[in-house]
Amino acid sequence: MSLADSVLAGDRLALARLLTLLENDRPEGLAALSDLYPHTGRAHRIGITGASGTGKSSLVNQLALQLRQGGLSGEGPPVSVGIVAVDPSSPFTGGAILGDRIRMRDLAGDPGVFIRSMASRGALGGLARSTFSVVQALDAAGFDLVIIETVGAGQVEVDIARTAHTTVVVDAPGLGDDVQAIKAGILEIADVLVVNKADLPGADHTLQVLRATLDMAQPRPEDRRHHAGEAVPDAAPEAASWKPPVLPTVSTRGEGIDELVTTLVRHRTFLGATGELARRQREQARLEMEMLLCEQLTLQWRAMQRDGAFERALEQVVARRVAPRQAVEALIAGTDM
Ligand SMILES: Nc1nc2c(ncn2[C@@H]2O[C@H](COP(=O)(O)OP(=O)(O)O)[C@@H](O)[C@H]2O)c(=O)[nH]1
Ligand SMILES: [Mg+2]
User: Fold this and answer.
1) Which of 61, 63, 120, 249 is surrounded by the fewest CB atoms within 10 Å?
2) Contact at 8 Å (CB) between 161 and 280?
3) pLDDT tens digits, one per residue of 230-252
4) What is the dihedral sign for C-alpha 277, 283, 286, 288?
5) How far apart are CA 51 and CA 152, in angstroms?
6) Ligand 2 (single-atom ion) residues, CB below 5 Å
7) Residue 231, helix vs strand vs coil
8) Which residues lie with the beta carbon below 6 Å from any ligand 1 atom?
């Protein structure tokens, strides 16, 4: 049986092997993923992002437990959950990953749950790209839900969050990062906001600040669609707008998780009913293709260059004799400097 067939048949060891191949950019992995791609598109992808220590991993743990026990409605059949934890701030296979494993121990041994931790890849964009691949593999493997936990710090994390259908931004009181989150442009990608650690003092204040900020920042639906570059002509305007709710949770005690699950289901319904789901899926495919195109073109171009041409051009730029744009134009034109 091929690797792709084993993954489709539900073989978890084969899935783990595939994910390792994908993380290491191995051709066998990429070939298997190409075979699996037609089987993707079924999972609902939920991105969970926010500053370190806000309680994202604890929240993911609770979400998964809830979904395994009561499904999407609280009393429905359990849904299977694939979890990808991405933490570029811990490039070593120590701390955060071990922490995630331990916190997610409640889920260990449940065949309906699969947890994968990913650390940073060296190459720029490498982490986002390998995360896309891992999420696709979990989708093809048949998980109903794929949860992607990222530390919302920079562009890479925002890119990763964009692979989600529903993005949950997690904040917590006392971290002073209400403003930081807004700076990072992270609020703009939030479909749902969670103020976790609602048991701590200051939680009400954080809830208020976020609600007020959203009221100010919320673009009108028309603007949103204009910004997205694609109209949704057949959707009624009122149905086409979604105001991100702000929900308090205490993930250490499992409080507020029911409401979060209900909201996630409601958002999924909204996406489907307004055509936004199809639009997001198209944008995701576009983002991934553009990323791959940049990467492949750069690799091809590098292979064609005379040895040291880039370094020589770099010297000229560092010495301020040539502007970066001029240097790049010369490199592409093949004029050595
Ligand atoms: N008081 C309180 N602590 C929490 C809550 N959720 C998580 N924590 C604690 O916050 C710390 C960071 O949690 P973690 O889930 O690793 O955060 P992450 O870095 O965002 O993934 C841990 O010590 C958790 O036990 C909560 O709702 N209330
Ligand atoms: Mg975490």
Assistant:
1) 120
2) no
3) 444 554 554 568 999 999 999 99
4) negative
5) 6
6) 56-57
7) coil
8) 52-58, 99, 103, 196-197, 199-200, 250-252
